Amino acid sequence: MAKMKAAMAAVLVMEKEGVTQAFGVPGAAINPLYSALRERQSIAHILARHVEGASHMAEGYTRAKAGNIGVCIGTSGPAGTDMITGLYSAIADSIPILCITGQAPRARLYKEDFQAVDIESISKPVTKWSVTVREPGQVPRAFQQAFNLMRSGRPGPVLIDLPFDVQMAEIEFDIDSYEPLPAYKPAATKAQAIKAIEMLQAAQRPLIVAGGGIINADASDLLVEFAELVGVPVIPTLMGWGAIPDDHPLMAGMCGLQTSHRYGNATLLASDFVLGIGNRWANRHTGSPEVYCKGRSFVHVDIESTQIGRVFNPDLGIVSDAKAALQQFIVVAKELRADGRLKDRGVWVQECRERKRTLLRKTNYESTPMKPQRVYQCMNNNFPRDTTYVSTIGLSQIAGAQFLHVFGPRQWINCGQAGPLGWTIPAALGVRTADPTRTIVALSGDYDFQFMVEELAVGAQFKLPYVHMVVNNSYLGLIRQAQRGFSMDYCVQLGFENINAPQLEGYGVDHKAVVEGLGCKFVRVYKQEEMGPAIQQANVWMAEFQVPVVIEVMLERVTNIAMGVEIDAINEFEELALTAADAPTAIGLLD
């Protein structure tokens, strides 16, 4: 049996589990693992500027491609606590990432040693499993268990904490006989599928709500096949956006309080049956169950049994992986079609398409400073169909989801439930690392952009080009809008007179100086006529220098984006589209 340090065994197991990329920040307590990484040269490593940034890079890497598992590494103490936000974001959206932390030697645990903290206990609420490995011989099996847990059932993150002396200890381990453990995923039965399709058949105005579980299961093609087979419109959640292309005739729009379309909400309210697949019934999608559920019956398919009935009790619950459920649904639907028993949904589909064509918000504003609605119209006109958008939270993201278009799975990469500011830059870098070829456009407000702006240096150092659109109104815009209900505008102003950049006229931070100081390229836009040339320039720079390019668009200071407290009570603060010229890039006019 081969003898090796436990740290080397960990690296060998990661190799066997398919890991080829890691993100992290080395430190004294994790140096044995880094020594093994250096010796093996099998797992590439990107040095983050902040350990939280490394965790979000790992998230972006996982979310970019089916089967990926991002790995982030840090030392003891604050490295682990810095990664808590990344773990929270990952578990909230069912994203598997592996966080590895160093730890003080076992003899120094619980003795207030330097940078020794009980990260196992701290991280347990935001992981599927968190463990401090106390026996060197358990290291390879802890990693084996970690990958099995991340892949089984509802995906999610794991943290492995390695004391320094555990990493350094010699163990016997045979990597040649090692095999990953088979992942467990619950699967719907045919009997359950028959019952669900019977309920769909009995409905007059059925809908499919497609959640992020469909993306995670790599089942978007099956969703489209099933929807086309039964002729039922689809409403994706924010996390499921892209599971069906926006211009597909059966894509009925997003429903919700914020990231939603007028036609999506109207169609949900007009329905009488909803088949939810791989979704959580998140409150920003549903609003109150009293409004969302009234007048309609529900089937809920989810990989995690405790999700069913958590928000409201469906008429039928099915515990299943989304892919397995869709496979069964297709089998049953094809049998009904062969017998001539599938209902014709043509009239209902046309009603949904008419709402998609007519219930629109205006985007074609000519004013300067620019309104965000016009910015997204310009983005629709200038970015290609296969663009991948990366965003987190704020009015920038909400407006983006209302006005941008997504045409495929994993082309909208967004942390949905946690929404940590600063997520966007490192996540975009993780996506770029996972896929060197795709068109990547990150979307931030000025505050999200400033939270982890130092990670742009990672993009410059490791040649990770992408476009970052920063819509700058020098405000905490979403919070300012929320403060309307309290009749205040308090502690949300980011603008100030910058003594080094008077040309900004009170907008505050000079992002050009910051971005260029971090080794990237920058262009500032004031008018819609400048957007196309700015994007063209960004493409030239990315090709020449292989670094991120930031396009800052100077917005009007105060804009209120449509949202409300219920899906039937959305406040439309801005003008609605009355003609096609008011919303020339609206998907309902293009599909």
Question: Cα distance, first to last residue?
Answer: 63 Å
- Measured as a percent range, the helix fraction is 25-40%
Runs in which pLDDT lies below 50 for 5 or more consecutive residues are none
Oligomeric state? single chain
* Number of discrete helical segments: 24
Q: Quick one: overall form?
A: globular
Provide the β-strand percentage band: 15-25%
Backbone CA Rg: 25 Å
Number of strands: 21
Major sheet: 6 strands, parallel
Helix-and-strand structural type:
alpha/beta
Please list the strands of the largest sheet in the order they lie side by side.
Answer: 3-2-4-5-7-6
Average pLDDT taken over every residue: 95
What does this structure look like?
There is one protein chain. The chain has 591 residues and is an alpha/beta fold. Helix content is 37%, strand content 16%. The chain contains 24 helices and 21 strands. Strands 3-2-4-5-7-6 form a six-stranded parallel β-sheet, sandwiched between helices. It has a six-stranded parallel β-sheet with strand order 15-14-16-17-19-18, with helices on both faces. Helix 2 (31-40) links the parallel strand 2 (21-24) and strand 3. Helix 3 (51-64) packs across helix 19. The longest helix has 17 residues, at 322-338. The radius of gyration is 25 Å and the shape is globular. The chain starts with a strand and ends in a 20-residue tail after the last strand. The mean pLDDT is 95.
